[in-house]
Write a structure and sequence with these properties.
This is PHP domain protein. Keywords: Signal. It comes from Aureliella helgolandensis. InterPro entries: Pol/histidinol_Pase-like. By secondary structure, this protein is of the alpha+beta class. It has four domains: 141 residues, Sandwich (Jelly Rolls); 94 residues, Immunoglobulins (Immunoglobulin-like, Sandwich), CATH 2.60.40; 352 residues, Metal-dependent hydrolases (TIM Barrel, Alpha-Beta Barrel), CATH 3.20.20.140; 81 residues, no CATH class. It is built from twelve helices and 41 strands. Strands 21, 22, 23, 31, 32, 34, 36, 37, 39, 40 and 41 form an eleven-stranded mixed sheet that branches. It has a six-stranded mixed sheet with strand order 3-4-11-6-9-14, with no helix packed on it. A five-stranded antiparallel sheet has the order 15-16-13-18-19, covered by helices on one side. Helix 4 links the parallel strand 22 and strand 23. Helix 8 packs across helix 10. The protein is globular, with a radius of gyration of 28 Å. The N and C termini lie far apart (60 Å).
């Protein structure tokens, strides 16, 4: 094939000599911002795109053998077709990360004169906005297999102190920092995507084009990341070893991902069940729950087949995918009948779930996401500060996702506030971090996770029933790049009920994370109200590796029972070995990536009656004793907190008394400051529900 440079639409098409034997044709220089009609997706992109597609004419000669097209892509969330001369070569990867993708161009597809390259969004125009950058497109004069095997890289990843091989994730970047496709395919021990190699045994051999690369190795949140730089020449084989250190002390904590999918059994995404076993071991998940849609899959045979059974204990679950929301359930017996996902109400759905043999956990998934035109915690159905469904739907869940790394929120704290409001409503609900991973490399397994306080000495033989006991008790920590441990009065952990004998209550918080994450802010919540906030961005030099901050707090002991929660946040990860994803259903084009670690709730038994009494229960007693009289309630609420005032306001409004009436507003203005705050927060949320109904 003879490559002929031409100029078209101000794009220089040049021949670049790569070696004495190889050449390439540059079809598009630089990256172009593309978008079909519609508003921009993110403010990092200009208002107006460069174009809605790529259409390039170029000259060539007939290719008598296969040649290769190379495309750099960034921020691709929808389907984009790639075609030459009207023949589709394939699609860009649905993956927001910066990567190089390769397409074989069949023999005799190129013409002896003018040829046409087209890259366009496959989704119907005006349907879905997708701001992307596509470019640096080259045509190489050799087949794909040869391009990706010019050199060979043989890597071993080991635990630094022992030298023992470790399951791991390997990330390969080219000299421009993009994920580099490699010359290897998924197999017995490897799961491979562009620039991402998962190894179940710590070894990987793969091809690369001649050039310079940066290679990273890691093993999930608890481990360090090692990196090497190398340059490989045509025909060269290089051997390297990368070493990992366990930096985050999670002794006595089991790493659980309650939301794990496969292409094999869910029918979408790209991770086969065989690949999933490799990725679970490599990301350090010790108790994965199989939650394919409306099926119940046992991963144990697949783990045995992959020789990774020593690294994790699989649990059978199911994402019961209904038109009213998605619910992860577990554990399930392998022979159990699948719950009916077509039932018409939460009550019926949850009744069917709990009637399924062995099921003890029902997690409300991604409650702020819209599916089948239903957003469980959207304002049309849910009062966010009262923690209650305004249509009276039965709330029988005993856990809810507060962070889902495949479905992050524009406001990362939103679901955490929702969860604390649900606690105030009187529901005992465990907070959950999960990945919802359907993929190998895009939204990867275990990025968000839940740590359960139980015996972790044998990851391949975890006592699941005990772990679930602890999970349901709330003895968990939620991790998405950070881990936040809260201890009250030196003794009481997440999920436990604390006592404080003096006039103050003391809290101690440890914020943990590997060297490649940062913590910047620590917040303390009491009954969902923020009562302290500290900058923790400067880690003291004397802290151990893996410890970001140790902070102590002292507060006046409240008169009534409350729950405490500690949440640490930090800047998101831009490095491609653990990049934090953009929001799945963004509420704004403005967004700031963050990592987060959240303790479970620690209840303070202030009245020492041995029972954790919620704000809702206190408010119900106040409402009943006052016979719904607002002025009488406001007087009593002075001895309580804003969370109790919110619950009381909800009861008054639901009783048919308008809080917006002038006389009631006057009474509220004379109430205690925390009571006024609670009523104001309630009315803001109530107005949001009314606007949602009006818009609906």
């Amino acid at each position: 094939m003879t490559l002929k440079p031409i100029f078209f639409f101000a794009v220089a098409l040049v021949v670049v000599s790569c070696s004495s034997a190889h050449s390439e044709q540059l079809l598009v220089e630089g990256l172009r911002h593309l978008r079909i009609e519609g508003p921009r997706e993110w403010t990092e992109f200009p208002n107006a795109p460069d174009d809605h597609s790529i259409n390039v004419q170029f000259e060539s000669s007939v290719n008598e053998r296969e040649v290769t097209l190379v495309v750099q892509q960034q921020d691709v969330k929808q389907r984009w077709n790639v075609a030459i001369n009207g023949k589709q070569l394939g699609r860009l990867r649905v993956n927001e990360n910066d990567m190089l993708v390769y397409f074989p161009v069949p023999a005799n597809l190129l013409r002896a004169s003018e040829n046409a390259l087209q890259i366009e969004q496959a989704t119907q125009r005006n349907a879905v906005t997708d701001d992307v950058r596509i470019g640096n497109i080259r045509l190489l004069d050799r087949k794909l297999e040869d391009v990706l095997s010019e050199a060979t890289c043989e890597l071993t990843v080991v635990e630094a102190s022992s030298g023992s091989p470790l399951p791991s994730r390997i990330t390969v970047l080219n000299s421009d920092g993009a994920l580099q496709s490699v010359g290897a395919s998924s197999g017995e021990n490897l799961a491979i995507r562009p620039g991402t190699i998962y190894s179940s045994n710590g070894s990987a051999s793969f091809g690369l084009p001649a050039g310079s690369y940066t290679i990273y190795a890691g093993r999930g949140f608890e481990y360090s990341v090692d990196q090497i730089h190398l340059t490989v020449a045509l025909g060269q084989t290089v051997q390297r070893t990368l070493q990992l250190v366990r930096e985050v002390d999670t002794t006595g904590l089991v790493a659980c991902d309650t939301h794990v999918h496969t292409l094999t059994h869910s029918g979408h995404g790209d991770a086969t069940v065989e690949e999933r076993m490799i990725t679970l071991a490599a990301e350090g998940i010790e108790m994965p729950v199989a939650t394919d849609h409306n099926v119940q899959i046992d991963h144990r045979p697949f783990a045995l087949q992959a020789n990774v059974e020593q690294y994790f204990t699989p649990v059978i679950g199911n994402e019961v995918t209904t038109r009213l929301g998605h619910v992860n359930i577990f554990p399930v017996t392998s022979a159990a009948e699948v719950p009916d996902h077509t039932l018409p109400s939460w009550q019926a759905i949850l009744d069917a779930i709990y009637a399924t043999p062995n099921v003890r956990v029902a997690i409300l998934n991604h409650a702020r996401d819209e599916h089948t035109q239903v957003t469980p915690f959207g304002p049309l159905l849910h009062n966010a500060v009262a923690g209650e469904n305004i249509e009276g739907w039965h709330f029988g869940f005993n856990a809810m996702e507060v962070v889902n790394s495949s479905s992050t929120q524009t406001d990362i704290l939103q679901l955490f506030h929702d969860w604390m409001a649900v606690l105030n409503r009187g529901y005992h609900v465990t907070p959950v971090g999960s990945s919802d991973s359907h993929d190998v490399g895009r939204h990867f397994v275990g990025q968000a996770r839940t740590y359960i306080r139980c015996d972790d000495q044998a990851p391949g033989n975890i006592e699941v029933s005990n772990a679930i006991d602890q999970f349901l008790q709330g003895e968990v920590l939620v991790s998405y790049g950070l881990l936040t441990k809260l201890v009250v009065e030196d003794s009481f952990h997440s999920g436990q009920m604390a006592n404080a004998n003096g006039n103050t209550v003391r809290l101690k918080v440890h914020v943990l994370g590997p060297h490649w994450t940062q913590a910047s802010r620590l917040r303390i919540y009491r009954n969902g109200q923020e009562i302290a906030s500290r900058d923790i961005s400067n880690t003291p030099a004397d802290l151990a590796t893996g410890v970001k901050a140790i902070e102590e707090f002292s507060f006046p002991k409240p008169k009534h029972d409350v729950h405490f929660v500690a949440i640490a946040t930090g800047p998101g990860i831009s490095d491609l070995y653990w990049k934090t994803a953009k929001p799945y259903q963004p509420k704004s084009p403005d967004w700031q990536a963050q990592v987060i670690g959240c303790s479970g709730a620690v209840w303070l038994d202030a009245d020492q009656d041995g029972v954790a009494t919620s704000a809702h229960e206190y408010a119900r007693e106040i409402f009943t004793n006052a016979n719904g009289d607002l002025k009488a309630m406001l007087t009593v609420l002075a001895d309580f907190d804003a969370a109790t005032a919110i619950q009381a306001a909800h009861m008054v409004q639901n009783a048919g008394v308008s809080l917006l009436e002038d006389s009631n507003q006057a009474s509220i203005k004379n109430a205690a400051s925390h009571t006024r705050l609670g009523f104001a927060q309630y009315l803001d949320a109530w107005r949001e529900t009314q606007l949602a109904k009006f818009d609906h």
